[in-house]
Amino acid sequence: MLLLKTCLSNIPDPRRAQGKMYDLSHLLLFSILAVLSGATSYRKIQRFIHARRAWLNMLCGLSWKRAPAHTCIRYTLQRLPVETVERAFRQHAAHLANELPKEPQIALDGKTLRGSFDRFEDQKAVQLFSALATNTPLVLGHVLISDQKADKRHEIPAAQQLIQDLNLTGRLFTLDALHAQKNG
């Protein structure tokens, strides 16, 4: 958990100086814990922190007198720079991947996110390409497949980018047969 907090501390704080009552890295860490515990809204994240505030204070050496308001959580999370959040999670996954034995396979696969298609807004379904360490519950990273045409050839450059970005050379990969093409 300390490693994750260290990675989260590299994310720049989007709040003004007056709005920094709660440390960003702890707010992000507690929000992640809340979501992992089933929180599906900003109010539920706030309730999670409120219900466990004493334990979280003891665990992290804090002295929060109350949980942040759901509006504070929403404002903070919505204004985070996406690229730096992704970089922090990839940094954390890279640290965890370095601790894995060399044997684990890395499964690479693309998926279309359910419910992401919006005919009314003329929005195509979002496609992600992910890397997963198969013997662990660890998702090493993912890449948004930007050109979302009907054909799946766009997974090939996404796989190459993900392998390069995560520095996964020297590992055994499992991929779809699509990736066995000579030119791609």
List the topology elements:
Blueprint: H1 2-8, H2 24-36, H3 42-51, H4 53-60, H5 70-78, H6 82-98, E1 105-112, E2 127-133, E3 139-144, H7 155-165, E4 172-174
Parallel strand pairs: 1-4
Antiparallel strand pairs: 1-2, 2-3
Helix pairs in contact: 1-2, 1-6, 2-3, 3-5
Q: Characterize the overall form.
A: globular
The total tally of domains equals 2
Fraction of residues in β-strands: 5-15%
State the separation between the terminal residues, measured CA to CA. 39 Å
Question: How many DSSP helices?
Answer: 7
H/E topology pattern: HHHHHHEEEHE
Global Rg = 19 Å
Low-confidence regions: none
Strand order of the largest sheet: 3-2-1-4
Averaging pLDDT over every residue, what do you get? 83
Class based on secondary structure composition and strand pairing = alpha+beta
> Quick one: how many beta strands?
4
Taking the sheet with the most strands, its summary is: 4 strands, mixed
Task: Report the helical percentage.
Answer: 40-55%
Task: Please explain how this structure is put together.
- This protein is α+β, with helices and mostly antiparallel strands and 184 residues long.
- The protein folds into 2 domains: 2-82; 101-180, Nucleotidyltransferase, domain 5.
- It has helices spanning 2-8, 24-36, 42-51, 53-60, 70-78, 82-98, 155-165, and strands at residues 105-112, 127-133, 139-144, 172-174.
- It has a 4-stranded mixed β-sheet.
